[in-house]
Write a structure and sequence with these properties.
Blueprint lengths: L2 H10 L8 H4 L6 E5 L23 H7 L3 E7 L7 H24 L4 E3 L3 H9 L3 E8 L9 H8 L2 E5 L33 H13 L2 E3 L5 H10 L5 E7 L8 E2 L1 H9 L3 E5 L2 H4 L3 H17 L7 H4 L3 H13 L5 H15 L4 E4 L17 H10 L4 H21 L4
Parallel strand pairs: 1-2, 2-4, 3-4, 4-5, 5-6, 7-8, 7-9, 9-10
Helix pairs in contact: 1-16, 11-13
Bound molecules: zinc ion (ZN).
């Protein structure tokens, strides 16, 4: 579809309409570009998102909160770059594709896959939620470029190159320095490998977005050079506002914008507010929970939603409150100032450590819109931030595909 037609679809879904008062205030569409899922997603009843769950994103919370679309993440942790490590990563990724597949099969009257911007808007127009699939850590390709094609066939439309710890594609913003990986921006930080370049080029050909969240500064620079289409950061903040390696410095915010891309500001505690007291208290609680459960170490999938964990976290929240929507909007403002209103988006990182005071789960999504409005953003700005910019980039990436 031509750009004009796509924009027409977007514009046709205006703010007004015969909708309840609250929904009248809703932007044309709301897209959260980073939502994690547990490995046993849709496997155990407690992870069946058709029902009320303790997950921060389930279908009911999206519907009630006015979150129309989410990028569900195929994340795998970084292990060794050897045959056993790759095999495990491939298997773990497959489990997550299966989980998302089960959700789509079980609840077709509530949520549908969106593999194109048009499909996402059509789902929304039909009153359905959208799920888009995003890879986080291309280690799960198992060092085999053909698996990128397979991922595309399974519906993935965005490829996050790296996670915590360097992989076979590029260096990470958080390299594993304890095991000898060179610090970011040190002489040993090599940026992107030949395999990383091949993945970026193949993603361009397939029409997949290249996602540089978690990548080192050098890797971001390489991605900007290698990619023939705009790139995204699916969940990153601004380093000038809060100095954290996962946040992007101003020169990279500018460079991503200059190439037409988008940086989705993320509502993740440590990227918005430095709070060593809270970090220590959380670590202590996690260790206690793991010990009680007889585990070697804390395991988010099995432990995050235990009632005793939730009670402990509520106590911690009283003593060391999380960053607020004001902190979040402050970063968005800075990113808009540096990159421009056409190059910033929104992400939660829910169920992957994300969530702040005021946007603690998907049911509170309208609070974000209200905070942006209070901060002086116009309806047109808010429409861009909540999905307009992302859909533009996605459309451009798609148009350059060669398949
Ligand atoms: Zn992440």
């Amino acid at each position: 579809m031509k750009t004009t037609a796509r924009l027409a679809i977007f514009a046709a879904l205006s703010f007004a309409g015969a909708l309840p008062a609250q929904a009248q205030q809703d932007p044309p569409v709301t897209i959260d570009t980073h939502v994690d899922i547990p490995f046993d997603y849709m496997g155990e009843p407690r992870f069946d998102v058709g029902h009320d769950t303790r997950l921060l994103v389930d279908l009911g919370k999206m519907e009630r909160g006015g979150l129309n679309a989410a990028f569900f993440v195929i994340w795998v942790p970084q292990h060794k770059l050897d045959a056993a490590g790759y095999a495990k990563a491939v298997k773990q990724a497959s489990q997550k594709y299966d989980g998302i597949g089960r959700m789509l099969m079980m609840y077709p009257d509530r949520i549908r896959l969106a593999t194109t911007p048009e499909q996402l808007m059509a789902n929304h127009k039909a009153g359905l939620l959208s799920a888009t699939i995003e890879i986080e850590n291309a280690y799960s390709l198992g060092h085999d470029i053909h698996r990128l094609d397979a991922a595309f066939d399974r519906g993935a439309r965005s490829v996050g190159l790296v996670h915590v710890g360097n992989n076979d594609l590029c260096t990470s913003s958080l390299p594993d320095t304890e095991h000898g990986e060179p610090a970011m921006n040190s002489a040993g930080d090599k940026g992107m490998s030949d395999f990383g370049r091949a993945v970026v080029k193949r993603a361009n050909q397939l029409g997949m977005m290249v996602d540089i969240s978690h990548a080192s500064d050098n890797c971001v620079r390489d991605a900007l050079k290698v990619s023939s289409t705009p790139i995204i950061a699916s969940h990153s903040g601004a380093r000038a506002v809060l100095d954290h390696p996962r946040n992007l410095p101003d020169d990279l915010l500018r460079a991503i914008a200059a190439k037409g891309g988008v940086v989705d500001a993320v509502a993740y505690k440590e990227f918005l507010k430095k709070d060593p007291g809270r970090e220590a208290a959380e670590k202590k609680l996690q260790n206690a929970i793991a010990k009680q459960a007889g585990e070697k170490e804390y395991d988010s999938d099995s432990d995050d939603y235990r009632p005793e964990m939730e009670a402990g976290m509520a106590e911690i929240q009283k003593k060391y409150p999380l960053a607020t929507l004001d902190d979040y909007v402050k970063q968005i403002r800075h990113m808009v100032k540096i990159a421009g209103i056409d190059h910033v988006g929104i992400a939660s990182d829910f169920d992957g450590g994300g969530g702040i005071t005021g946007w603690k789960d998907a049911s509170e999504t309208r609070n974000v819109t209200a905070a942006l409005r209070r901060a002086g953003f116009s309806d047109a700005d808010i429409a861009k931030l909540w999905g307009g910019n992302l859909l533009r980039v996605w459309g451009e990436v798609e148009r350059h595909a060669q398949h």
